[in-house]
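pasting for the record
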Amino acid sequence: MTSAPGYGAVSYWLETAGDLSPRPALDGSTRADVAILGAGYTGLWTAYELLRREPSLDIVILEKDIAGYGASGRNGGWCTSDSGASLSLLTRRFGRDSARRAQLAMYSAVDEVGRVAAAEGIDAAFRKGGKLSVARGAAQLPALREAHEEQLHAGFRDRCTVLDAAELSERVRIHGAVAALFSLDCAVIHPGRLVRGLADVVVRRGARLYERTPITQWEGGAHPVLRTTTGEVRASTIVLAAEAYLSQLPSLRRAVLPVYSLIVLTEPVDDDRWNAVGWEGHECISSMRLTVDYLSRTDDARIVVGGRGAPYRFGSTMDETLAHHAATHASLRQMLPAWFPSLGDVGFSHAWGGAVAIPRDFIPQIRHDRRSGVAMAYGYTGHGVAFAQLAGQTLAELILEEQSELTSLPFVGHVSRRWEPEPLRWVGVRAAQAGLARVDARQGRKRPPRRRSLAERLVNR
């Protein structure tokens, strides 16, 4: 199969996703019932759910590069029931019942990703092995206990289990681990095959997907429109589904903060080494660090190691150099032998990164303004694989004026305050990044977080 030069180098997921040849760009102006900006998970799931409900709809999708070029083709391969906003935060803002309904919807979204992939013949390597949130040392135990209490308070006792060190080692043997919180509602996937497969499905169902078609302007109102350098698309409804890339549109520059999450990938691990660490359940694994770390096992016996660390760039600039931040990639490579000493000689084959969108209050949002004809969903803080599926279902129902449990979720209609203007934004975010790193360094010295620093209060609201 052929592939457009360069796109396979974006990530291992795209490199192994099959044909990446771009579809034709928009050439001239056109009309549609719904026009979607962005051919990532949010845009494609929205198109899929609209066409599933109303097959006669004329839907146009405009993508700056190729389907899956952004976070949908670069992420860590987790399909998790986390929404990006903690249950405690949702409870404080919207009440216990709304928080519970939101979490139940996320549980369903994980399963729906797997169900649709199987039904549509998408080889997404979906495997629901659950998630292990690991306390690596006693300093991380308070955070683990707090996460467990959060689940219990919300009424999800049956969804999570605390494992002691011996019980954890029966699943996976992690150096320095003293306990873990196990939850079933998480799966590993091949993100590239999922997003590229979704693109093929929606095109087969009748959507028009134009790739290598950058948007220059969008307008709502009596005649909603997406404008490009080669034409415009007018529609009854336009959907802004570009996640972190929304920050590059002037009118939405302060809606989200683009923060880069980076990944390294090992060479295939042989059977003897797997026997040394276990991990037969393919669980997704993370620790209780505030700066985020995560590991997963691929369907071809490799290990994904991911985390944050690339510094925020002034003015919310998105730059491919941040996807290859050498210091962060180096620290991620060092994580593997720290977690699994027996894998210390395993080599690494790939390194990449992508931007996640962080709203000011850490709560994702799904909106449709019928008066302006503008719909949007964004702010997933790195938890977009399952949430985008939920957003696609919900946007489809809002656009078609249907009402269900989804359209009454607390994410719907929520509007976060905007991020501060520069230079305050740069100063604040850089300070928070440095502060969280210091807290994690204290944990490494066996000192639990004190929860008194500004950085800690920001992420634990």
